[in-house]
Amino acid sequence: MSGKYGKRSKDGRDSMRGTKGENKFGGRGGASSLAGVPVAVGQRVECEIIGLTHEGEGVGRVEGYTLFVRDALPGERVRAEVLSIGKSFGRGRMTEVLDAGVSRRVSPPCPIYDSCGGCQLQHLGYAEQLKWKRRHVVDNLARIGKLPVAGETREMIEGSGEGERPPVIVHPTIGMDEPWRYRNKAQVPIGFGDGGLIGGFYEMGSNDIVEMDACLIQQEENEETVRAVKEAARLLGVSAYNRATGRGLLRHVVVRHARTTGQRMVVLVTNGRDIPHAQELIGLIRERVPGIASICQNVQTAATPVVFGDETHVLWGEEVIYDEIGGIAFAISPRSFFQVNPEQTVRLYSKAVEYAALTGTETVVDAYCGIGTISLFLAKHADRVYGVEIIPEAIEDARRNAAINEIANVEFAVGAAELVMPRWQAEGITPDVIVVDPPRKGCDPALISTMLELKPERIVYVSCNPSTLARDLRLLEDGGYRTVEVQPVDMFPHTGHVEVVCSLIYKGLE
Q1: If DSSP codes are grouped into helix, strand and coil, which group holds residue 23?
Q2: Which residues bind S-adenosyl-L-methionine (predicted)?
């Protein structure tokens, strides 16, 4: 989970000692300073909050200097303590709201929101979260992508000898009717606490674990499963992994819940292969977890923050559990990537299908296809779909999922999309539409070049990172495409994350 700096108190004020020696900024003398920077570390300052960062920090100004203030909201005037400074910006923590202004601050309902780093926006009303996420997308398109946005930037801009172009339409963010209890997967780090083995989420800005028995964005079934596993491990004396020494056994507990089938999976991530009292542990989990269908072990012995190692095997039950999204069944293995918010996933993928504008005659390539989720949605509307993914295990899952659903007009290949797609073209496979859903770093530059060479009529870009999306859209625009529509989707309410679906068309066909 992403972290923050320090802790909050319930009333928004900190518990630090008084403000003896406050200077003209309302703060104490700093422990460090920089020439030309009007604030110092340790100083308390007053600032107006004018925006939010992609991590949900308030963007404040102090004599023209930018200070990112966690917990602060746009429209507020706050007092903050400066935590760090640089030439261009610094970071601080809010100690008091001096004037709420037009902000939509609410009381976070989560009992551990003050310390847990999992959510960043519970203190902002949900309707405002949706508005901010759209604004975050718009700002990146305009600032990084240099794209005109309808109603936000100039309505028309000069094209490259093509006259003026229409602006990009950015729709309001698609939110949830009930933005709680949506996650179907929990990935819980295990460590030591005062009472022995604990499990929860990382404290803001640290590797310390906050004990968690309730999380309002998790499905209740996941809470129940995690509690049962922790209780069983404590009862049998299973040791918790110590990150400082590299000793101890249990590193993470990963649980999944398939809402449509009710099946549950437990994955024990261990620092070694041998689990003392393994059969007793399996028996207690089976006894205490309703719907348990799979208990697996993943071995991770490396000193790394990466959760999973390369070795996974079944301790009891099935290798996979089954769930459905939009009427399509999926087999989910321990390390499968599967969207954690099924309700919003249907909306996200339905929008991708809409932007593909399929009539049933098209050939579609799904780059970064994963376990075939988007590919199978597209296959219902296209003549033929080709999915490519660099991870062999994901392609195995994709082929299995196609077989489960008896979808025959899909084909999957292992490899880098920028290498596989030219090979397909040499075999006479020319895509009418290319769909990309890359990781946060965005598309590989070689893939951008390949798409520009293939010149499909349409490109549908699904993104989890508006900044790399905007960068790639600029490259595609310069290569002959026009961004038509952009649809933000709130896949992760109460966090700073937003998913985006974009429609692009080749200008030569307009």
Answers
A1: coil
A2: 339, 368, 389, 437
Give the whole-angstrom CA distance, residue 305 versus residue 439. Answer: 18
Would you say 342 and 322 are in contact if contact means Cβ atoms under 8 Å apart?
no
**Whole-number Å distance between alpha carbons of 125 and 111:** 17
- Model confidence pTM above 0.85: yes
- Summarize pLDDT for 241-259 with one digit per residue, the tens: 998 899 999 999 999 999 9
Quick one: fold of 185-332? OB fold (Dihydrolipoamide Acetyltransferase, E2P) (2.40.50)
Query: What are the tens digits of pLDDT across the range 48-75?
Result: 999 998 888 999 999 999 999 989 999 9
Q: What are 171's strand-pairing partners?
A: none
Active site residues: 464
Six token digits for residue 369: 């296809």
CB-CB contact of 81 with 44 (8 Å): yes
63 annotated ligand binder = no
The answer to whether 73 touches 49, Cβ cutoff 8 Å, is: yes
Q: Tokens 């625009």 sit at which residue?
A: 477
CATH number of 134-176+339-509: 3.40.50.150
Spatial CA neighbour of 91 closest among 35, 43, 139, 31: 43
> Which residues are CB-contacts of 301 (< 8 A; sequence separation ≥ 6)?
271, 272, 309
Q: Do the annotations mark residue 389 as ligand-binding?
A: yes
50: left (phi over 0), alpha (psi -120 to 50) or beta: alpha
Q: Which CATH class is domain 1-105?
A: mainly beta
